[in-house]
User: What shape does this take?
Amino acid sequence: MKEILLIKNGELALKGLNRSTFEDMLIKNLRRKLSGILECDISKSQSTIYVVPTEEDPDMDAAVEAVSKVFGIARFSRAVVAPKNMQQIIEVSGKYLKDQLAEVKTFKVEAKRADKNFPLKSPEISRELGGYLLKNNPHLKVDVHDPDICVTVEVREKYAYIHGTQLFGAGGMPVGTAGRAAILLSGGIDSPVAAYMMAKRGVNLVGIHFASPPYTSQRAEQKVHELASEVAEYAGRIPLFVVPFTEIQEHIKDDCPEEYFTIIMRRCMMRVSEAIARQQKCGALITGESLGQVASQTMNALQCTDAVAHLPIFRPAIGMDKAEIIEISRKIGTFETSIEPYEDCCTVFTPKHPRLRPTLEEVEKAEAGLTGLDDMVARAAEGARLVVIDPGAY
Ligand code: ATP
Ligand code: MG
Assistant: This one.
């Protein structure tokens, strides 16, 4: 039977007058996500988006998998279409749900009558269809509170739609509705999760990665491409800027007290990132920092880092435990890549005893001893190399 997808958007329903802008962005994102996977028409009506395949033999499993990664969708269902006639609704439902009902013990029927001209009221539709399904599936029992499957009939303008239990969407807001921000992407576990979390809020991402060849290898950079490509499954295309960071790191290492090395390096990362972010018209920076996780992530250290930035810095993982971050990274599919053992520029020159509570004053003093740092920052930003990452490209 020819299936379609019925998509209900989540928070979008709350957005009042903006709603249609949000829905249009969601449809645009769905079109992009489904291109190459499903030939289809996508349209909207009464806060539902319809994805109707136009090809002969659509791969609906692949389409469901793709749609489940598009932000802005609370719930969606695979459904079939029936003429608006109770007898036909019953016949189509029986046939479409046969296999699904064979596998469960309890069910209920829920009817939604958007078309108030339909001759039967919702409880009557439920009763008639429920009675039929019970008669034809003697193993089934009705459970209105916690059924194994919730058979739903939606009687809408033109047709009736029939589906089983709804599937969960990725939630959040459509990417592109909340502006653009630059994610500082290392090869670690935390920053891909932070990228995912902000994309979920509707943010379009630009990636920035600091590489320090020859201390860091081409393979380490490749790993970051892979992570960006995995995040792009949810976030859409990500332009990734790879910043040559060697000159700055060597300068800091040679001419600055070791205990301030990391914090000054992070301040440089912020300066370079901000230059790229502004040029890319980003409204914020994003990092994967989590309070107290390492020396550079104490409150004092974050204060010293923030002091050089003028854009807001979003740190969606700031209040999360490592275990919670790992849970998300497993869920979104970045964990296995993140734990591949390649060196990062941060780990290359890690001091043995970093200052845990640096004051801004002492950091600024140590930094003042580094001549030519501003020029190096400008050179690093200008020398950034652009790689464009498509979903699943690696
Ligand atoms: P992650 O798991 O994301 O690497 P981490 O716990 O290893 O984080 P740090 O190495 O201190 O923490 O980095 C903190 C944040 O700084 C990262 O989450 C990331 O946003 C940014 N960052 C660190 N190294 C780099 C890099 N080489 N390129 C770009 N951003 C980086
Ligand atoms: Mg790291």
Remarks:
- The radius of gyration is 26 Å.
